Amino acid sequence: MNNNPHNQSLSNVHSSIGTENKTGWRKILAFIGPAYLISVGYMDPGNWATDIAGGSAFGYKLIWILFASNLIALLLQSLAARLGIVRGLDLAQASKNAYPKFVNLCLYVLAQIAIIACDLAEVIGMAIGLELLFHLPLIWGVSLTLTDTVLMLFLMNKGMRKLEIFIMSMIFIMGASFLIEMFIVAPDVLEIAKGFIPNNLFKQDPVTKNMLYISIGIIGATVMPHNLYLHSSLVQTRQITRTHEGIKTAIKFNLFDTTIALNLAFVVNAAILILAAGAFFKNGYFAVAEIQDAYKLLSHIFGSLAPTLFAVALIASGQSSTITGTLAGQIIMEGHINLRIEPWLRRLLTRLLAIVPSVFTIVYFGEAGLGNLIILSQVVLSLQLAFAVIPLIHFTSSRKRMGKFAISLKVKILAWISAILIVGLNAKLIVDQLHDWIKQFPAADPWIYFLVIPLIIGIAALLVYVFLRPILYKHHDTPARVPHGLATTIHDLKPVTYKHIGVSIDFSKNDRDCIRHAIMQGGKDALYTLIHVVETAGARYYGTEVLDHETQSDANNLDKYVDALNKLGYNATAQIGYGSAARSIAAIVKEQKIDFIVMGSHGHKVLKDLVFGTTVNKVRHQVNIPVLVVKPQV
To answer: Could you give the C-alpha distances from 298 to 182, 244, 292, 447, in angstroms and in order?
Structure first.
């Protein structure tokens, strides 16, 4: 179990929602939330593209694929929740403990590719929704999706409950939109029922091959790999009693949460496929793979209301899914490779990696190529799925690690059947795709034989290793590499004496508290250097040569502080820095050989942090001395 608060998954919201001392509906409501954040990933624009393509091309025939995918998702998500509740580890952290460093790096890269592929679908979906509603060019819409980083930061700073409420409201908008559209389209109920009967996906005719490709896209869009990482972390936001009964109760209520949320996602996905089948397949439009075409045809067949609801739901889908993708990226990065960076920066990097191929597709292939790009992104998700599913089954099957909460033999068999089905379908797709490439592009044979095939063999070898290692090395699952190292034994503690203390000054009400905390550390024996940084445009450009009014005024004010301290019997001096606050403070610390620094916290939140920056954090990363942060008095 993970008891170190610094090593906890999503540590800023870990155990932030209480569940104790609650009964009945209040107890159920306390646990409801994590699975709804998961479920939006099952209703993102990638699902829309695969569902529309499947419904328009094959009518109701692929509903059984959606249903089977939902059952598999329900099983695997419940295993992910169990792992997080019982062991207090997310899937990435458990993988880090079970596999070597290089394998974890490979798993991280594959998982990150899956997140980018998912984000790609969300970028395109949001841009299409904006185009349909506001006639905004797609290239502009794709660019505007960068701005949702601000919304994500705002919601995360408001706490997990606020985030969950926002996501649930987006789900409600989607559900209500499709419910109304179902009444407008009036699908054939008998044909829908027949769609639950499985059909053969392994025939060699072109129609079945296309059906297999769309089916795998549906599986990838439904059973999303990063959702397994995310769910194993989000369940840890609930505060539970770490007893047998407490853990058992948490597993039970999280299963309720998962079942309700994922069945709701299935209803929405089925509604999209049924909508496509009833509106397009039924009317002879058999190749509607583009979301834009679906919108236009809905308008042509049913008037203005249905397509408007379609576009509104599409925007809600893309906006909600992007937030869960960000959280999953944080979990995967911290868990697999111990890298912790600011959420806004990670979100920005992931979004840029999704925007670049979208812009490239629009510029070189036109808007018509975006639908195929979305479906390809979902197939990529499916190809990565096995690398998350196989470790998850191993971890939740281990009686040594899970104790009495290890999954039963029946559940284990069902889980491995699901994994075999996923791997088998993906292998079939890869073989078919390679065969088609070799036939269609004979000039590209050298690239296929010397680059593509070796890469596929390498990834297959990695998958075999991921499967075999937990079996061959059953007792090597130890937390040998934790994010902040292992605790050391404390024998003796001697007081630390600081001889040269720096104090950052900004001529605000914080200065008095900063100076007071500084002299508490050094008394009258230490040297105190009061540091102020001039950040005017002139200071940034001219540096020490600037003589503007602000610089002279700040220097005079700093001297007043120094004189006051000297009169009180303290040895104080002043230093003026120029330009970037963090860089200047760090430079003064090194030049003056300061061994301790006191800084005032500005108290900014979210938007102000983006505008003004976070000086304290930047200084902490640029110096190798203790930094005492004094919060402003309210």
So the answer is: 12, 54, 10, 43
